[in-house]
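A common beginner's mistake is to predict each chain separately and then try to dock the pieces by hand. The better habit, illustrated here, is to supply every component at once so that their relative placement is modeled jointly.
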Amino acid sequence: MIADTTHRATAAEAHGGHLAHHFDTAEQQFESGKLGMWIFLSTEILLFGGLFCAYAVYRANHPEIFLYAHRFLDKTLGAINTAVLICSSFTMAWAVRCAQLGRSKAVVRLLATTIVLAGCFLGIKYVEYHHKWKEGLLWGKYFHAELAPAAKAPSAKPTLAPAPAFNPDERSLIPPAAIGPRGVAKPGARSPAELAGAGPPHDVQVFFAVYFMMTGLHGIHVIAGMVVLSLVLVRARRGEFGPGYFTPVDLAGLYWHLVDLIWIFLFPLLYLIR
Amino acid sequence: MSETTEHKHGPGGEGGVAAHAVPFKVLAAVWGGLLVLTLVTVVVAGVDLGSANLGIALTIAVIKGSLVLLFFMHMRYDRPMNAIVFIAALLFFMLFVSLALLDTRAYAPDLIPDYAPELPR
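With all components supplied together, the output reads:
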């Protein structure tokens, strides 16, 4: 950071912020920093966007996998985690407000609370991941869970349910069944008639690949956020922030709110599939 | 922690419009609203509404996200450029997912239910 000592905004200097030589005023510097953070947040949206797109495509192609596998996730823990992150966002926004009003002690307390709540989130996440690990509900080729088999073993000649009487006035929401190619299905692939039975669908590990990728990347962002907030907390304890200079608190807050924003969308998509 | 001043304009430092502090009442109201909406999401997910469940859950998530964006992230009081940048990213993301799903929909009739190739383990 280049601090040209011949250009000073007295208010900014007094509170620990330096006016870099390529800015005219401290306000311009602050607004530039803010815009930079918003641009970074846009890249984060696109980063998670790719994963959300993968989720959308997989779920559109194989809804049965998502319907089946999401029940292994604990809705209560997920809801608690959502509430924890919402509370941490509140304390973060409050900390920014206190920094703007010059309440240094409150800033320190609120930042510390935000970090503690983030730790709670990670703790609950650990509990969830540990459960998955124990049950073998892992991603891709590491999936080795024992899934409840079909209710009854399919006989050589599966009997189809009688077709319902045709009612021309009724609009069916069921799409026409696709006819599989004869003689090409691999052994072990189930005919559509077997599906009426029960049991886990093929490739349940796909759901867990999506789950771990999305929540894992989000968890890494939470950890990174905790590191950043800790650094800001150290500076806050030194009394560096006040009405004249609160940029780091503000920008760290923006990042933290984005982490909360992403979880707000992750929670219903992964935990509340119906 | 009750506040009487709602607006704080820093004198000559990072002051002006940028130093607007969101009123505490607004922050607390948004916080309460977010928690209530989370509860609503969970409760509605327990009711089987068929394909509407996804739409309702996403709608509530969008409302919650908007509350976080506008008030916690200060977008309501900021200069428009920040909002333009972020919303542009959201629009491009939606375009991305729409096109991918269009393609998926186009091939949906060719899908055999629950038929999957043997994946390497």
